[in-house]
Amino acid sequence: MAANMGSMRILIKGGKVVNDDFTQEADVYIENGIIQQVGKELMIPGGAKVIDASGKLVLPGGIDTSVHLQQTFMNAAIQDDFYSGTKAALMGGTTMVIGLALPEQHCSLLDAYEQCRALADAKACCDYALHVGVTWWGPKVRNEMETLVREHGVNSFQMFMAYKDMMMLRDSELYQTLQTCKDIGAIARVHAENGELVAEGAREALDLGISGPEGIEISRPEELESEATHRAVTIANRARCPIYLVNVSSMSAGDMIAAAKMQGKVIHAETTVAHAVLNGMQYYHQDWAHAAAHVIAPPLRLDPNTPSYLMGLLGNDTLSVVASEHRPFSTKQRALGKEDFTKIPHGVAGVQDRMSVIWERGVVTGKMDENRFVAVTSSNAAKIYNLYPRKGRIIAGADADIVVWDPDATRTISVSTQVQGGDFNLYEGMRCHGVPLVTISRGRLVCENGVFMCAEGSGKFYPQRTFPDYLYKKMVQREKTQAYKGVDRDPYSGDVAKVANTMKKELGLGPIDGDAANKSCSRVHQGVRDLHESSFSLSGSQVDDHIPKRSSARILAPPGGRSSGIW
């Protein structure tokens, strides 16, 4: 059935085609999983299924760059596998997801990748790719990164500056990882929070008796994110590697990214739907289960202006991508931390609602137009991950990943009607304009008017190419023009001072050679008074008692002259 659907001929007629740079009224003809023609009055072979898109928008399918499916995190199994997770994505207008293969510390990156591929290939309904987490560092990790890039179609790695003792890399390790990413042409994704101070903050909060979900916000203030953001950008700049910051959650981190871009640094960043829509007052809700359902890292921010600010940064290109960071858990699983907020597994659901919520809070409010919406939900991700223009654009020759979008229709989000996993929806009761009517994935009609028709396992792994121009073009040119060079000069031919070996003796720092090693090192008093052997005493007879005492003398002309004041 999947093969027949892939060879379907489909004509989308009468709609407005929206790309990230322009909108046009055009028909779209699809055959063999590829967009064959875009334009007016097309010459179409017979037998094509016609979809009437009059008054509707025809968008590139969404690309969700951060989903977590069918794995365990913080001792809890994620509530979606690759079937239910990709089905929810397609129902919401997303036609490609990028998951994360996350190895345990000191475990093989290749093994984690292979396990993830085996699970996904059997169940995925749409195209998918994989990031691989770098949770430790050593020569083996570097070699496996090279192998993953060269032989397995991986072009992105994710590093963590938080999660101490779980996944956190030290600055020197992050520097070496970024250098490796630059050498092999991979995208370096970095989660920026000061992991050391997060751990200290959590300990202090628990010592104060704060054990509820509000502890996540108290222990991970936004200054820890902005500091780590600045540090990550600095390390990437020294490594001469483009950097992609994930889960940007605060105004101060956003400002740091804007400043770095102004300085010419090659930096891209993504935020999540939750951070761009909700604020941290949720953690202070009287219902523990409600508060715990919002626990993510970095946490939602208390400042109520933050979501609007982040949405504005998406609109003005400071932030490039919005992802769902989909990692759903049940209330029972979150209850693992009912007495200790550090044990609440971090994660929220969102892969199904990402497109509609961003349309409602971004486009309907005027923060962005329809073209920018396409950019932050699809095209920018395609450019950054080297998928463009096969993905993220409606153009002849591109993959037929298309959504027919009704900008005027509305739907009310509810956990009772969602396909995605979890027993809580962050956007419960939100009425959203913008509804996907038809979803086409690789030329297959997979969803129409809420009816899902796609076989489990019909999706494909999408190998990614290295050195995306969108990130590396500028870096390669800078390497040519800004390479460090030593000064070409005549060698020094003058005298060279001899090393003063006696200095060690004078300072009592130990033997100079083997012969002296057998001799006891006696104390030497040259120029420095040894206070342990001082002859000074505060009581009794003194060593200078034999010196005649001089009677006191009045100073008639003190240094600096006499004072004429009242003193």
From TrEMBL:
Highest taxon listed in the record's lineage: Eukaryota
Alphabetical list of Pfam families matching this protein: Amidohydro_1
Chain residue ranges for the region called Disordered: 539-567
Single GO MF annotation: hydrolase activity, acting on carbon-nitrogen (but not peptide) bonds, in cyclic amides
Domain Amidohydrolase-related: 57-445
Family stated for the protein in its record: Belongs to the metallo-dependent hydrolases superfamily. Hydantoinase/dihydropyrimidinase family.
Coiled-coil residue spans: none
Organism of this sequence: Stegastes partitus
GO cellular component annotations of the record: cytosol
Protein name as catalogued: Dihydropyrimidinase like 5
Gene behind the chain: dpysl5
InterPro entries associated with the record: Amidohydro-rel, Hydantoinase/dihydroPyrase, Metal-dep_hydrolase_composite, Metal_Hydrolase, Metallo-dep_Hydrolases_sf
